[in-house]
Amino acid sequence: MADFKLPVHITSAAGIIKNSSGEILLIRSERRGWEFPGGMIEQGEDIISGLKREIFEETGAEVSVGELFCVSSNTCVEPGYNGVDQVPPKTIFDFICSYKGGEFVPNEESLEMRFVKESDVLEMITAPVYRERFGAYLEYRGRPIYMRYEKYPEFRKYFQITI
After folding, report:
1. Is the confidence at residue 2, as pLDDT, over 80?
2. Residue 27 contacts residue 112 (beta carbons within 8 Å)
3. How far apart are alpha carbons 16 and 31 in whole angstroms?
4. φ and ψ at residue 30, rounded to 5 degrees
5. Contact residues for 163 (Cβ-Cβ < 8 A; gap 6+)
6. For 28-40, how does the pLDDT look when each residue is reduced to its tens digit (9 = 90+)?
7. Closest CA to 134 of 47, 48, 32
8. What's the chain's average pLDDT?
9. At 159, which helix (H) or strand (E)?
10. Residue 58 in contact with residue 40, Cβ under 8 Å?
11. 80 by DSSP, 3-state: which?
């Protein structure tokens, strides 16, 4: 038992944010291009509060968080960035959110943001993992989807099931 170590696993959340016209809020990041907002849940924070914080930090938007439509596991260890050596595996919770208000404020993480017609989203998102997760949103029929993938060294999806 002396060699036992607790696993390190990041918990993240993201939101498909819809406005009153049914358009989806996308942000453009320098590293991944267009995507929907979200990020890591901080220590001591619950998933919903962390998601609202991340969305606000990345966009300036205030949202209400609705249904969970996808849970995904990135099971690989990735090379780090911003002074971090390695990024451990990650579990991501994706929610359908409603835009309540706020002023969009571009920043380091989100160079640009805009509402886009739902039918145009997949044309804008280029990162495979965000395309797959948005596909889970499009397939959502009241039961969340679970998927396992690895993002590094190249995207590979292992499976997807409805839970």
Report:
1. no
2. yes
3. 19
4. -65, -40
5. 71, 143, 144, 145, 146
6. 999 899 999 999 9
7. 32
8. 94
9. strand 156-162
10. no
11. coil
Task: Place 1 in a pLDDT band, splitting at 50, 70 and 90.
Answer: low
For 84-133, how does the pLDDT look when each residue is reduced to its tens digit (9 = 90+)?
888 899 999 999 999 999 999 899 889 999 999 999 999 999 999 999 99
The CA distance from 28 to 25, in Å, is: 10
Find out whether 125 and 35 touch, Cβ atoms under 8 Å. Answer: yes
If phi > 0 it is left, if psi is from -120 to 50 it is alpha, else beta; for residue 38 that is left
Tell which residue, 2, 161, 152, 1, has the closest CA to residue 90.
152
Contact 77, 87 (CB under 8 A): yes
Of the candidates 23, 10, 11, which has an alpha carbon nearest to the alpha carbon of residue 61?
A: 23
| Residue matched to tokens 């280029």 | 126
CATH code for residues 10-162: 3.90.79.10
Map tokens 């969305």 to a residue: 55
Residue 44 to residues 39, 41, 53, 136, Cα–Cα distance (Å): 15, 9, 13, 28
pLDDT at residue 51, as a whole number? 98
**Where exactly are the structural domains of the chain?**
10-162
The answer to whether the peptide bond before residue 79 is cis (omega within 30 degrees of 0) is: no
